[in-house]
UniProtKB/TrEMBL annotation:
Taxonomic superkingdom: Eukaryota
InterPro entries with a match to the protein in the record: BaiN-like, BaiN-like_dom_sf, FAD/NAD-bd_sf, RsdA/BaiN/AoA(So)_Rossmann
Residue ranges that the Swiss-Prot or TrEMBL entry lists as coiled coil: none
Protein name according to UniProt: RsdA/BaiN/AoA(So)-like Rossmann fold-like domain-containing protein
SUPFAM superfamilies: FAD/NAD(P)-binding domain, HI0933 insert domain-like
Any single Pfam family the record assigns to this protein: HI0933_like
RsdA/BaiN/AoA(So)-like Rossmann fold-like domain segment(s): 71-115
Organism expressing this protein natively: Mikania micrantha
Length: 133
């Protein structure tokens, strides 16, 4: 269906980066990201795009996966560089390809960081108790 939208859309004299089917409901920034990811020149005209490129963009639109990597462990929100240092929310400056979801990032990250700190504190307290005995 997505591939069909692309094929039916093709405005011959426009650049691929500047126009795309409105039915897809995506933002321009994400569209450009898809083109770059597929190695498609932003300045190429729709008339010149190969059917292989069209199919690969359509496939990406249907199933686009992302690799998340960074200096924070997402399981605990602890810094991988400085142990016992945790981060959550706006300070991480999370920048998704489509933007948004900042509240969810702040709430989920805050919950993970808070529970991780709680577990760490409980472990430290029990080992201190054992040492004192
Ligand atoms: C105008 C606007 C609109 C937004 N709309 C959306 C939206 O629609 N959807 C969405 O998902 N996100 C939106 N965001 C982003 C969202 O508000 C933030 O990502 C989120 O609030 C971050 O939460 P936080 O707890 O990390 O930081 P904040 O909410 O900024 O909380 C930080 C708190 O720390 C306090 N503080 C700062 N320095 C100190 C200090 N030295 N000592 C003690 N306290 C301190 C501040 O007073 C503040 O209360 C919007 C942001 C803005 C500015």
């Amino acid at each position: 269906m997505v591939g069909l939208y692309l094929v039916l859309y093709i405005p011959q004299k426009q650049k691929v980066a500047g126009s795309y089917p409105p039915e897809l409901g995506i933002v321009k920034r994400f569209w450009k990201y898809l083109l770059n990811r597929e190695g498609i020149d932003e300045d190429i005209l729709w008339a010149s795009i190969s059917s292989n490129s069209l199919m690969s963009v359509a496939a990406l639109l249907k199933q686009c996966s992302f690799i998340i990597k960074g200096k924070i462990s997402l399981k605990t929100m602890e810094s991988r560089i400085k142990s016992r240092l945790f981060f959550a929310g706006e300070v991480l400056n999370v920048d998704g390809i489509t933007g948004g979801f900042n509240f969810q990032n702040a709430w989920s990250g805050g919950y993970i960081a808070g529970t991780s700190i709680g577990k760490m504190a409980a472990t430290s307290a029990s080992s201190l108790e054992k040492q004192a005995m």
